[in-house]
Design a protein that fits this description.
Structural class: mainly alpha
Order of helices and strands: HHHHEEHHHHHHHH
Radius of gyration: 26 Å
Strand content: under 5%
CATH architecture of the largest domain: Up-down Bundle
Number of helices: 12
Distance between the termini: 62 Å
Low-confidence stretches: 24-33, 255-261, 264-280
Length: 280
């Protein structure tokens, strides 16, 4: 007969094996899919940032729910997120619409960006990694061609990446998050952005000055160069608007019904890869 100690040892081994099997099963359990509201929020947000849903477009909950083939609940929550991000505004009677950014708004954004990104440049000069600095120099080099040729779209894409690298490399996550929100709001004001050939060349020169300060690890100079760069851009925006004799608030753009923005093919191509179904 087996002794009591032997029985206990066997029981311990069996218990250990059972525990291992449970742990393995938990590890192999499928990772939860993205929430419906998150998928909806990202889809609408992307449509706003790319201009698919232009400023002033009404964000009708019933229409968006029908076009994206989801219930109204995740649409409502997604729209509230967009309002909190500054990408949409809610009116008591008309509901929500894509936010409009006028000159006054834009100047406020640049003032805050100058403070935030000035600090980000200062922090980067103190601790930016060699890899991030190499990436930044690569973007700076790539900006040369569109700056000379006057390729506004190409330059803006690289300009966005240039500033993203700096704020994402500064080591301050709250600063980076705030800067990201301001950048999103800027996408609503492309009609007001400076786009002359002279502006592109000046911007590229200022970027070179910023990068030089980062390479030489001069925090004060990096901060000053970034602040002066964004202040000059802000001035260029004001000059453009003044030259065109635009009213500060700008004309009211026509409202576009969401169903003309989201075609069935577009909605399906996005949502087929998300667990949206038709439930909230």
């Amino acid at each position: 007969m087996l002794s009591l100690s032997t029985h206990l040892a066997q029981i311990s081994v069996l218990a250990f094996r059972l525990l291992c099997e449970v742990l393995v099963l938990n590890l192999l359990r499928p990772v939860p899919s993205i929430r419906v509201v998150d998928a909806v929020h990202q889809r609408i947000r992307q449509a706003i940032l790319t201009g698919e849903l232009p400023p002033g477009t009404r964000l009708s909950v019933p229409d968006l729910a029908r076009r994206l083939d989801v219930s109204r609940s995740p649409i409502r929550e997604a729209v509230l997120h967009l309002v909190a991000e500054g990408l949409a505004v809610e009116h008591s009677r008309r509901g929500a619409e894509v936010a409009r950014v006028n000159l006054s708004d834009l100047l406020e954004i640049y003032a805050v960006r100058a403070a935030l990104e000035g600090l980000a440049a200062q922090l980067c000069a103190e601790s930016m990694s060699a890899a991030d600095l190499t990436a930044l120099r690569g973007v700076l080099d790539a900006q040369g061609a569109p700056a000379v040729s006057g390729d506004v779209a190409g330059y803006r894409e690289l300009d966005l990446r240039f500033h993203q690298i700096i704020v994402q490399s500064c080591g301050n996550s709250r600063l980076a998050k705030s800067a990201e929100q301001l950048t999103a709001e800027l996408s609503l004001a492309t009609r007001l952005m400076a786009d002359s050939a002279e502006h592109l060349r000046a911007s590229h020169t200022e970027h070179r000055r910023i990068v030089a300060a980062l390479i030489e690890r001069r925090p004060d100079e990096a901060e000053r160069a970034m602040r002066e760069h964004l202040a000059r851009v802000s001035g260029a925006v004001q000059a453009k608007v003044a030259a065109q004799s635009q009213v500060l608030s700008g004309p009211e753009p026509p409202q576009t019904a969401p169903q003309t923005i989201f075609s069935n093919s577009t909605a399906n191509s996005i949502l087929d890869h998300s667990p949206l179904g038709g439930t909230s």
